[in-house]
């Protein structure tokens, strides 16, 4: 039998130990949604003050966060967002979503089977009552329209922000990903890997569909904001995470986050 030198055995042991620690660290997922209620989340809906969950827009049933409009009447541009209580900077977010039902009366046509997750968002408590969208970056979700036409999901939209895409500042409000089209009411698994302002990755059902960097304040789309908050050119290194409500009923579940800040 060939003997292995002691130094090699020690190094192998240290390597195994390090790998074990890394594995344990990577397995530490935080459940942002407890499956029972909206504890630890904040609501902000246009035309309403922070904390007012108008029309019970965001609700929980059967372990799912539901976005519904049955108490609305006309939609009346009441764009809303449900924010987790604290901001994050370096993290891996994962969740599942599905579109259900029909578009609410009065909602803009572009919101048909359209929702998303806002991230690197401003604090909702800094938003005036009439501000429509938070200054943020959006991990946009779109559902297929059943017409055989491609409609990718996991796109990037930029209310009040801009990004560096393919090496240059891109001023488009939305940029399509390379994802497949998902029709019907099927659950879709979405993941977002955010490393401060250096790298952002979108993943849909296990496939990487988009990468970009340097999210920063700038551009238009956001209206009636506090000018002191919109500091164009400022890099976004952290911010709040929010689920979107813009007229289309949608469900969210299994919302978990892994904090990557120790690997910065």
Automatic annotation (TrEMBL):
Gene3D superfamilies: Exo-inulinase, domain 1. One of its GO terms (molecular function) is hydrolase activity. Residues 29-257 form the 3-keto-alpha-glucoside-1,2-lyase/3-keto-2-hydroxy-glucal hydratase domain. This is 3-keto-alpha-glucoside-1,2-lyase/3-keto-2-hydroxy-glucal hydratase domain-containing protein. It comes from Hymenobacter crusticola. The lineage of its organism: Bacteria, Pseudomonadati, Bacteroidota, Cytophagia, Cytophagales.
